[in-house]
Write a structure and sequence with these properties.
InterPro entries: Aminotrans_V_dom (IPR000192), Aminotrans_V_PyrdxlP_BS (IPR020578), PyrdxlP-dep_Trfase (IPR015424), PyrdxlP-dep_Trfase_major (IPR015421), PyrdxlP-dep_Trfase_small (IPR015422), SP_NH2Trfase/AEP_transaminase (IPR024169). This protein has about 375 residues and is α/β, with parallel strands linked by helices. The protein is about 40% helix and about 15% strand. The mean pLDDT is about 95. The structure holds 4'-deoxy-4'-aminopyridoxal-5'-phosphate (PMP).
Amino acid sequence: MATSLLHIPPPQMLLRPLVVPERLLLGPGPSNVPHRIQAAGGRQLLGHMHPEVLQVMDEIKAGIQYAFQTQNQLTLAISGSGHCAMEAALFNLLECGDTILVAINGIWGQRAADIARRLGMLGTVRWHGRAEGTRFGLVQHKPSVLFITHGESSTGVLQPLEGLGELCHRHGCLLLVDAVASLGGAPIFMDQQEIDVLYSGSQKVLNSPPGSAPISFSERAREKVLRRKMKPPSFYLDIGWLGNYWGCDGEPRRYHHTAPINSFFSLREGLAMLAEIGLESSWERHRANCARLCQGLLNLGLELFVKEEKGRLPTITTVRVPEGYNWKDITAFLMDNHAMEIAGGLGPTVGKVLRIGLMGCNSTSENVNRVLQALRDALSSCHRSRL
Ligand code: PMP
């Protein structure tokens, strides 16, 4: 036998079959993908400029306009996860000399500030602790963009947005909102609430695989991008190019990048399922199952992290890690004994809370009962005095 020229052999692990266990994903995302959406993602590929794919993209655009409640033409899905949409918003909106005011009420404000700071010359970040101080921040710092997270998945807090868009516009500022964790689970009205850039993700309420992220720019935001002196620092995320590829500018569509076509098929189905259920029923479903879960957690003697019911994010519930327990023991117990994922805290809540997500098709009373039963078992098995 001829000696091989290869000094790296084929990896043994790749010669074994792919392993993907069944698991109930009740963490802060991703959530489980229903068969219909899985099947759409498993369809044969088409070319990224084929008319059928462009048609699917038009359908996604209409689905996002519905989910966001907006008529904005510049509405599309970014080829990337929620972070990618966050970067797309910031890279396109901010330029040299701009100031961004970031409302920091959890990890996502911190991340937005981090991204804005990396843009260096493109923006000055003003840290801001609490949303109530926004008016003061707008007057003092005169930002051109205000960033705020609607559903803070690290704390389980739903941020009220009423009046914020109008307030920003009175101060010559654009409103940028992260709705990755809240879209479809809590009411948001992009046009009525005067939100200028809104983005979300595919893997939460939309029950689609991660990797495509809905985003929309208002006319005000589009004009700010058009007035830029320099092109946005990312070619991949240049909203002018993306808008053209998505048929938002009335020009012939040009190749920009090879889009994740199968992810678009899945996202199309995720949005179709939301349209079929209807936004209002979807909000009500998340509200009702979150309320059931919260009551069940209280009945178990646990303490909810967000005291005020109104302030609770209906998609992700945070509950304090009870005295005498380590959160890791509880999450590991659920994974090992119930094939169920729930998560520990993130950013400011690390070590303090457990996070339970009920999103899209996972938001059912049956899943509420399952997770409560699993937690009951965990509480009787994981107390540190027993270990
Ligand atoms: N914003 C919020 C509120 C989120 O919950 C997440 C994901 N947990 C993101 C942004 C980032 O999304 P991704 O992980 O898809 O990049």
